[in-house]
């Protein structure tokens, strides 16, 4: 009888399967036994015995390779990355908000906030390529794309023109450039293994690496604080250069070290170690938090009717909603097991129910949050922030709907694979939307600089300082005008003003002479008749 037939026949007999394995080892046929296990696990991934053997043999293979952290690569790469981030954290590289006139620019955020993600990803890619003996061509291509994305942001953000949109775009890029860097590393690691299992295990390893890196940074903050306190007791204060070395340099150091410690670059994501050390602890914590999250969401939904308008009227409440939803999605990923080995059928059943229930409640909250964003957009205006978070909410909703749909269609045996499919599609959508946000926002919300420069200086200041619509009026005239494309468009009546969703707080006052100097455009509505002058 072949090993395939033997393994299939002993699908529920752990003791006899162990005997067959020992016999295969003694006969020098361990590879044939492993191939049989892999084939059986692929056919029935939810069979606990097959899953246990599959990951046991994979881990044994990894250990047999004798992989240890390649410190000869890690230390120089981490140090160079840290020193580079330290140098770029100098105030000379501060990103400024472009003003209307020369000398009116103002500092906004350190350039390193935008460049840290792409630069760290480049050094991580060098480590993964060198130690994992992967394609230098692919890693170089991804590295160039990530650096180009950072350069694109630094060059294009003035295209947004007005101050609020420049600020919003730069703040969004401080989040999205690191996301793009993470997606780039992920694309490199799953190249050649683009199946849902490898995509999901990459997400799990990413979560573990972020948590490990966060703990490392926390330890660094504590150490730095104690050191500064000791020297402060002697009336010795560290210069800014040293503080930046600890902060920016520490981030660069930790980024490379965390990946090196948590990820084995010699094997694909699906063959990483997940059942030991920090990995096991994180999975346990995520699963313990699942019922607590379910309870919090349930209680929260019960209280929504009593504070229904809170996210509609308060921007800060809406921000909290969105942060919570992203945290819930991360929790769902972290609570999902890589395999069912070590989980009893009863525990696996309840874990599935918990993940499904949390996803269902999170979907309700997501729809509520999306409604609030759309409402605030309808009564006010579309901005880079709102468009970005509308997109993120739609992706979250799509992910949760797919997760629930796949769970409804599969039986108990295939629920884990269905989760992997949902997370895999969600990860692709997240990465795609990140690219869209980085590339498209400056062109969707940019201003016509030529038209802006043709306006009177008093009007330029108003246009620069607030997003559209720009509504102008002068004190000696009852007429209100919309400024659009360097022209003024007369709004014929108060009824038209209200119908278009304009509000009085958006009306700005300028001298009548300045308003008269602006060329006339098409009135609102177009058939309103002759345009009166202010």
Structural write-up:
By secondary structure, the protein is mainly α. It contains 20 helices and 6 strands. Helix 6 runs parallel beside helix 8, helix 9 packs across helix 16 and helix 13 packs antiparallel against helix 14. The N and C termini lie far apart (97 Å). The mean pLDDT is 84.
Strand content: under 5%
Low-confidence stretches: none
Helical residue percent band: 55-70%
The computed structural class is: mainly alpha
Could you tell me the mean pLDDT? 84
* Outline type: globular
Largest β-sheet summary: 4 strands, mixed
N- to C-terminal separation? Answer: 97 Å
Number of strands: 6
List key phrases describing it.
534 residues; mainly alpha; 4-stranded mixed β-sheet; two-stranded antiparallel sheet; 6 strands; 5% strand
Spell out the blueprint of helices and strands.
Blueprint: H1 3-9, H2 14-26, H3 30-43, H4 48-64, H5 71-88, E1 94-97, E2 106-110, H6 111-132, H7 136-156, H8 163-189, H9 196-232, H10 240-262, H11 277-303, H12 310-313, H13 315-335, H14 345-379, H15 384-409, H16 415-444, H17 449-453, H18 457-465, E3 470-473, E4 480-484, E5 487-491, H19 494-499, E6 507-509, H20 512-516
Parallel strand pairs: 3-6
Antiparallel strand pairs: 1-2, 3-4, 4-5
Helix pairs in contact: 1-3, 3-4, 5-6, 5-10, 6-7, 6-8, 6-10, 7-8, 8-16, 9-10, 9-16, 11-13, 11-14, 13-14, 14-15, 15-16
Short description:
The protein has 534 residues and is mainly alpha-helical. It has 20 helices and 6 strands. Helix 11 (277-303) crosses helix 14.
